[in-house]
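In this supplementary section we document a worked example of the pipeline. Step one takes a protein sequence of length 53 as its only input; no multiple sequence alignment statistics are reported here. Step two produces a three-dimensional model, which step three serialises into structure tokens for compact storage. The input and output of this example are shown verbatim.
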Amino acid sequence: MRRKTVDNLPAEVQAELKAYVEHSYPLGRIGRPDDDDGMALISPAMRPRGPAA
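The serialised model returned by step three reads:
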């Protein structure tokens, strides 16, 4: 849900949604776009080929 949509919900529903998210997600919140800053992406093409040494 977008932040504006959540802000427009009644306070009771916002509280229920917050409790659900805190219970259901390990971080206690849904991710934000900047959460992946600094994350490394490893492509299968970057893996070494051949037997592991």
